[in-house]
Design goal:
Elements lengths: L5 H26 L11 H23 L3 H4 L2 H58 L1
Helix pairs in contact: 1-2, 1-4, 2-4
């Protein structure tokens, strides 16, 4: 709907969204090695939570934008959505890396725990006949 007063407001809205994308991208680039982690969070879980928080921050406006066809038709919106898609992909990949790391840690821990339990069960079974004599 060209010529309506909403078009200028839509452009301002997209401009603010692009600035927010730039802020999130800067925050990610500055803190990806050592992100701010909430108190009492394990390091890996804290990194995953941080990446999800950044993703939620940028995905909320996009969900609202998708409901407005006039807004999505603007060329500025299409450029902003491309930038959003690139940043969202980076954040999801960052999260998946640490999800895979945590799965490996849990698998190793469970394997070691099972080996210890088997070893203890083996020794307990060996000692039981001696205790009865």
């Amino acid at each position: 709907m060209p010529g309506l007063p909403f078009e200028e407001k839509y452009k301002q809205l997209i401009g603010r969204f692009v600035r927010d994308l730039i802020l999130v991208e800067t925050d990610y680039n500055e803190n990806k090695e050592h992100p701010p982690i909430a108190r009492n969070f394990p390091p890996i879980s804290g990194k995953i939570a941080w990446a999800r928080q950044l993703y939620r921050r940028i995905s909320g406006p996009v969900e609202v934008f998708q409901k407005n066809k006039d807004l999505m038709a603007l060329p500025e919106t299409k450029k902003a959505i491309k930038k959003y898609n690139r940043l969202a992909r980076v954040l999801v990949e960052y999260e998946l890396i640490f999800v895979q790391v945590s799965v490996v840690h849990v698998t190793v821990y469970n394997t070691l725990y099972a080996d210890i339990q088997l070893a203890l069960a083996h020794y307990i079974l060996n000692f039981i006949p001696l205790l009865l004599k």
